[in-house]
Amino acid sequence: MSDTFHLPPPPPPPPPYINNTSTPTANVNANVTNHNTSPNPNSNVTNYNYVIGNTPLTDPLVKLSHVKGHLVLLRSFSELKAKVEGFDFGRLWVPRHQDEDKERKWKWTFFVGLAVERFDVWCRSITEEDCMRSLYSIIPPVDVVMVWHTYMLNPLWYKDDCARIDVCRKMKSLERHFEQLLLDPSIMTSNPPAKPRVDHWEFNTRLGFDLFDDARNMVMVKKAISCPMCDAVIQVDYVNDEGTGYLQWNFKTACFNQGCTFGEIDKEKLALGKLSRDLARPSDSDNPANHLPGIMQSSSFGESQVKESRRIKDLVCQAAMKTAKANDNLLQGDGKEITYRQMYLAIMEVCKYSMDMLRRRMGFSYQPTLVGRIVSAYNDDKVYSIDLVGAVLRQGSFVNKMRELGWTSSRFFDGSSNELALQHALSRYHAFLDLMVSSTSSTLSGSSSKFLVPTLDIDLIWHTHQLIPAKYESDCTMLLKRFLDHDDKVEGLRLSSAFDITARAWKDRFGVQYTYCGCPTVGDTIGERLLHAIEHKSKAKAKSTTLLIPPTDQPDALSATHPSDHNSVRFIAHDERARNEKAKRYDSLIEKKEKERQAAVKKAAAKAASVNGSATEVTRDRDKSVNCGFNTAFLFPLPLEFAKGVSSPTAIASDGCIDLDGSVVVSVAGCGSGCGGSGCGGGIGGDGNGGPGRSAYTYQLYPKIM
Questions:
Q1: Which top-level group of life is the source organism from (predicted)?
Q2: Residues 128, 133, 135, CA angle at the centre, nearest 5°?
């Protein structure tokens, strides 16, 4: 069985997305049929006629009102972060550093960790009656909404968890409230917050509505965890001076229950206990709660996947049964039947309390994709299958880019001219989906990557679509015949290659460039892309007549075609040799990028000089007119450490991610394509399935913040 995405047979010619209000000037292939979206650039657009694959649409998949509401939420998240970075947490411990920038980032990471804890409390407090409540009483505080928002932007895992886990299923019943929030985000900006909203939160969660107040009053100081062996409740610090708190890199504690022999407890041991319990549950195909995580994610999910899940459970439980029968300490009663508790204790015993050993017992060596995907869902003791702290930190990069574009500014899109940029983004998203299902490009179909990488404007619309999960799933099923994941972690080098494939496939299908920000990106066509951006500036073209080209007189719209790389990560190497090999690859790529950038700028300046008579102005202003100001996509300086060398007694942890922005990853999961479980197997537009692992990498659970 294969999870590879096979492209469908060649479809009819692609839609050029032409605006028929003026004469076309875009370079559209002659054999492309006319596909009219015909908006009036000076008014709100209401006449849509999109085509995705063979399916015509009379309405867009996402409303502009949803997108605008989403941007208001992003502004709230950005303002929250700014407040956190300037907040004095007082007695509540926060690491101190002479580097003010690092200290601000430490504060934010610490705050996100507390926000995830509050999100967990909120999820567990949701009742069946809550789905009938008003939007103005049910929406939680902004920090919790931020975590919920990020969770939904991992749509495949979100869907999987909501199908299997009762806590998440109750949260899913509130999705219509989130859609209402997109249409009326004023509730997030009202100050003070509405009393019904505050009262409902405080009554259900027993926490203060304002996390800052809880921090001042030392409310969130300790967390209750359960011993994986005896279930005794243990109170642990979130942070402490020794660096062993729950939110810190070197978290560890011990069970003080007399007679318990479990020993030291850390995040990996908590994850081990959670996985062992799930493996010990009966293999009931009719009860989603008994499915292992990730089983229902495959595009070919069915009875065969259920059988594979059963086989993995049987493989582990049979070995554990022998251990249980040979160990009198594990057996209780008459010993004729092993209980659920005895089974999960025996599973931990047979794998010697090692997550890596348990992964091997599950058959990782001969089915690394499936086992890697399953194990990647176990980061700690929480029920959720993704590391929410790391996911929120990575999402923060996208929020910051929207802020830098000016798109989160209040009333930025009130004018019709600015709103046109969103209409172009909407059109490009539909074209992106059309390319996903319809491209006949040999570049794409012959690629081993088989996933597409969005630009910032496309990603904004894609994110908004995902925030209406039921509609997103039905749209994917109708148009793509599969569920389209938005991968949260993709290795940077792989992502850069896939982006170039996307750009070439886009040009092949639609006859226009993919990016117009002018930024140098890795790939053979960098000079052409940079030159294309210069030509738009130097010739001062009129507004574009194809909705796939952003308005050339709006710098923010051009910059929004920068690659969206918030999910680009580096995976930490296990040893120095693997680290050095990775460093050479990055160094080589950076050197190549710099040479291409210099050559492209010279070529663009020369071209501009031939048009305008002088290259001086273009050369002097190229950072403004050619480069949108964002960092080069997908490229990061490689960490000096490899996994065994990273430690710091007071560092804040984010369970799957290392670094202050979540861009460096160490995972307990095992690897997809050598990079970590669910992290990079299917890629953006893929199934989200892991690939073969590489022994050169280690997958520890909890990172340090450097």
A1: Eukaryota
A2: 125
Contact 236, 222 (CB under 8 A): yes
Cα(338)–Cα(269) distance, rounded to whole angstroms? 23
Q: What pLDDT sits at residue 431?
A: 92
Structure tokens at 667: 């995972």
Give the pLDDT confidence of 441-455 residue by residue, as tens digits: 444 544 433 578 888
Alpha helices in 511-643 (DSSP H): 526-538, 555-559, 576-612, 616-620, 622-625
Q: What is the 3-state secondary structure (H, E, C) of 52-110?
A: ECCEEECCCCCCHHHHHHHHHHHHHHHHHHHHHHCCCCCCCCCCCCCCHHHHHHHHHHH
Per-residue confidence at 611, pLDDT binned at 50, 70, 90? Answer: low
Amino acid residing at 115: A
Q: Which of 325-339, 421-435, 647-661 has the highest mean pLDDT?
A: 421-435
pLDDT on residue 288: 82
- Residue 663 in contact with residue 394, Cβ under 8 Å? yes
Q: Are 392 and 145 in contact (CB under 8 A)?
A: no
Q: Are 643 and 259 in contact (CB under 8 A)?
A: no
- Report which of 465, 395, 388, 455 is spatially closest to residue 425, judged by C-alpha positions: 455
Distance CA 354, CA 273 (A): 10
Give, as one character, the DSSP assignment of residue 268: H
Q: Model's pTM, two decimal places?
A: 0.76
For the chain, how are helix, strand and coil distributed in percent, rounded to 5? Answer: 50, 5, 45
C-alpha 332/C-alpha 342 separation (Å) is: 8
Q: Which of 251, 115, 120, 147 is nearest to 702 (CA)?
A: 251
Stretch 141-145: mean pLDDT: 97
Q: Fill in the amino acid letter for 371.
A: V
Q: Give the CA distances from residue 264 to residues 252, 358, 420, in Å, rounded to whole numbers and listed in that order.
A: 7, 18, 58
> Comparing 208 with 589, which gets the higher pLDDT?
208
Extract the tokens encoding 593. 């990028």
pLDDT (tens digit, 9 = 90+) per residue, 653-662? 544 333 455 5
* Confidence band for 218, pLDDT divided at 50, 70 and 90: confident
Of 625, 559, 510, which is closest to residue 26 (Cα–Cα)? 510
**The pLDDT value given to residue 365:** 85
Q: Which whole-number Å values give the CA distances from 86 to 185, 397, 660, in the listed order?
A: 25, 19, 17
Place of tokens 């894609």: 462
- Residue 683 pLDDT class (50, 70, 90 cuts): very low
